[in-house]
Amino acid sequence: MRAHHIKVFAHQVLVTKLKTKSVVYLLLIFNLLLFVSLYTEFRVRTQDHHHVEQYSKEVRQRWENNPDKHPHRMAHYGYLVFRQKYPLGFFDPGIHHFLGNVIFLEAHQQNTINSSEASYSSGLLRFGYFSASMLLQVLVPLLIFFWGFNLVSQDRENGTLKIVFTQGADWRGVLWGKTLGLYLLAMLVFVPALIFSLLLVWFHEASLVNSQLMSRFGLLFVTYGLYFFLMAILAVYVSGRSKSSRGALITLLGIWLFFSLILPKLATTYGQAKYPAPSKIAFDIKVEEELLKLGDSHNPDDPHYQHLKDSVLAVHKVNSTDQLPFNYQGFVMKEGEKLSSKAYNKRYEKLLQIYQKQNNMLRLAGIVNPMVAIKQVSMALAGSGYATYDDFRAQAEKYRYSLAQKMNDLQIKLISNVRGKRIQGKPDILDKSHWAQFPDFNYRFLSFSQSLAQEYLSLLVLLGWMLGLGLLVHYSKSLKVI
After folding, report:
1. Which among 24, 113, 316, 372 could disulfide-bond with 100, CB atoms 3.0 to 4.6 Å apart, if both were Cys?
2. What residues contact 132, with CB distance under 8 A and at least 6 apart?
């Protein structure tokens, strides 16, 4: 019997709302905004992808067309790599626009990722980037609250609830039925946007559609669907608890402001204050201090390199580095690259731990704010969160280290110890054919499971909210009819 009541109330909410012109206009406006933002961001992502391919090809051609030269000069000539956006990044740009896109790789130096879109934009970007995810995460809940604030309170005010209860309905049937109707109304905004997103990828870049991408689409549907259901439950429950529609509206607006503006800002500010990250200058100083502890390759009297030299001479039973069967300077550079990378990685791991603690403060805020939880999951699925960005940095650093050590190996094996000695008629230089032997940079996106590895808490938060609000509705026997 209760299932019948739920179906009747859901149908009544859906039909009544769709007969209202303002609701229909809002549905059309929101769908139009979502389509425009999705298509615009998709075009931007597609253009960026083409630019990355074009510039990467140019960088590779210039690298291979370098003339004959000393391998260490090639190591400092360096390599440019470009950050690619995941195919689903247009659905939720996340932090794409605020982080760098290009990094210059060279020996002995770990450079930052530069050329973020935000750096070329006006100060208005600090107010947020207009995107489909912003509409779905922030504005659609406001729309749900606007549609649902009087679903129960108005029936109480005009006496309809008394009639409903005399016909055998109970509070659970009323709340669940109206929640379901409100949820289906909200899905008229989300489902077309998700289908449109899938069609954009399917018809423009069908080669990208695989099991990984479809898994992300599927979980996006589930998580956003769960999120909107939570908001619908919250709107209907507050309407049922409030004495008047006006009071319900004020309460829901306060909840929306707390969820969307106040709590995220407080959590971010508190995390940065509790776990302050060092500045770029301070970080570089720490790396240099760490490197000096390990060994300074530019200091001929450094204990580490003096011991290294003595050991090498002893092993080869010679008195001078000129008598070694390989290029000793290249050997020192290889050791220096190893130590500088070790020092950098050690300090960066500590920096990364600070960032993770800051992000964890925001994730913990999701326990009392489902808007934070859905944002974290959405960015992870769209490949636009910090984990994706740091993975690109890690892959680029691995490539940089491999490039530097490859050039050092070429110097060790093919450059004479005797300075100025001619090799193949040229002094201390190698044929340019060696440059083409080094592989190009090939970035690999995080897998589906890797992307979600740090967001299981956010998924559990959404499920916890669902369970908590469901229990509130289930035990709502004491709500007043009048």
Report:
1. 113
2. 34, 37, 38, 41, 91, 92, 193, 197
Q: Is the pLDDT of residue 482 over 80?
A: no
* Predicted TM-score (pTM) of this structure: 0.88
* CB neighbours of residue 304 within 10 Å: 16
Q: For the packed helices 171-204 and 2-18, what is the interaxial angle rounded to 10 degrees? A: 60
Phi (first) and psi of residue 2, to 5 degrees:
-65, -35
Residue located via tokens 């922030």:
138
Q: What is the pLDDT of residues 129-185, one digit of tens each?
A: 678 999 999 999 999 999 999 998 888 888 787 787 777 777 888 889 999 999 999
Vertex 457 angle, CA 456 and 458, to 5°: 90
pLDDT digits (tens, 9 = 90+) for 75-120: 989 899 999 888 899 999 988 877 888 999 998 888 888 766 655 5
Query: In degrees rounded to 5, what are phi and psi of residue 394?
Result: -65, -45
> What is the distance between the alpha carbons of residues 236 and 312, in angstroms, rounded to a whole number?
78
Task: Pull the structure tokens for residue 36.
Answer: 């425009």
Integer angstrom CA distances of residue 267 from 143, 275, 278, 456, 459: 25, 12, 19, 19, 19
In DSSP notation, 273-302 reads HHSPPPPHHHHHHHHHHHHHHH--TT-TT-
